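Annex B.
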Amino acid sequence: MALKATNPTTTNAWGKLQAHFETIKSQHLKDLFNDDAERANDLTVKWDDFYADFSKNRITTETLDLLIELANEQDLKDAISKYFEGDIINATEGRAVLHTALRSPKDATVFVDGENVIPEIHEVKKKIENFTYSIVSGDHKGHTGKAITDVVNIGIGGSDLGPAMVVDSLQYYKNQLTTHFVSNVDGDHYQEVIKNLNPETTLFVIVSKTFTTQETLSNANSIRAWFLESQPQEAVSKHFVAVSTNIESVKAFGIDEENIFPMKDWVGGRFSLWSAVGLSISLALGYKHFESLLDGAHKMDEHFRTADFKENIPVISALLTVWYNNFFKAESEAIIPYTQYLNQFATYLQQGIMESNGKSVDRSGEKVNYQTGTLIWGEPGTNSQHAFFQLIHQGTKLIPTDFIGYVESLYGNKDHHDKLMSNYFAQTEALMNGKTEAEVLSELKGQSLSQDATSELLPFKVFEGNKPTTSLLIQKLTPESLGKLIAMYEHKIFVQGIIWNIYSYDQFGVELGKQLAKSILSELKEEDSAAIHDASTQNLLAFYKENC
Ligand code: F6P
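Glucose-6-phosphate isomerase: predicted structure tokens.
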């Protein structure tokens, strides 16, 4: 059954939210706290090892009720069932969206075309487990009899960002293997990665759902050619494996069937790290940690599927985006983890969120008359405080920000962790409270400035505050808690798409540039070209050709 397709702006709840917005828009968060002693408790959700404090957002409990009314009018509950049950909710590509099935237990049942997909998922998981064991233990030997020391993941987009982010984020849990990632078609990228590698002790994992992606196939071909400069053809089977849905093309590339880890077309690239695409994660961390990551995601799935919307972390989080995006007209959201380990987290989420919800046609095929996907950006704190926080504090734009912090650090240096977390707490407080004229004046008093100098300086030192933040406080960064966190954002993406009445699981927008690049490439390879371009592109091509 198809998803409901209603323009959200035509719902009753939207009208009520619009009216409610008029009463909220100029209220200061400080006043909202002063007016309601229970606010911090009422707008906080405690679930498992997650403490999600939404109270520093520019909402009241009434706002949340109205946003939930909007979700109900958009049939969110029904959409969630369809999502988990394998309905064809990726209608433009005619596919189910079942990354959730990848982390379901063995006894679950999820049907696609009348077939329960869970047994096959667990067969692939078993294959990943066995292969991981043989590589990590050293049982699997390279062609010359040496154990594998290095793993190179060759893939791009969802076939790179998820595994790369997870391996980097969980490096504390890594084994002895060194993991590398090659993604960009820029030849310098793969050259830099292979320059210090020994082909005799390296395993290459080619990851491409379609096995047609130019970047991945070019890198795989070039790396195989480099490998064959020193190794014989028969060594390929010991050093190259692949993950794909396109088994025939992988075989045509020269990879043995037993070295292929299959995936299904109902796994979207940007949601695929839970599938065989996560092979590099399993190799880098060991299968048990990979499984814990999946278990964590499954726990979040259950929370999302069953919790009342008022207590549902992904639902509230998504509704807040709608609130800021469509009523406050905020254009971007920042995601700031207070752990260096999550250095790649915002980059990873950029694909998930922006490739999914960067759409301007609704589920009825009509052009939308409201804003959809938000811009996502961020870097770990405290580094980001010394880079772009000035703009969040005193710039002209409203940037709702997620602060992700951990109660415990991994190495347990309490002194550093307290310093890190004091910044986490201080920033959300500063963003909310700002600094009034009176506060600035009393601060300046102590600096023996003249009256004139004080008045001149005053406006620059005042902070309006009232900047919204969500504080996620998690006990500890573990494979399981990271699984929960990633799944939380995945479900947030889904909810936003349902409310905005768009299809979140296709990505036709990235196709046009790819097609053009293909035809320009053939022009670059020929001496003359009859192709017609605009004057700017024509000049750029001519300049490139003359000078390269
Ligand atoms: O950028 C478009 C895209 O299709 C992504 O959605 C996907 O993750 C990436 O290309 C890589 O695709 P593949 O895994 O098929 O090589």
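The mean pLDDT is 96. The domain at 122-290 is CATH 3.40.50.10490 (Rossmann fold). Further annotation is deferred to the next reporting cycle.
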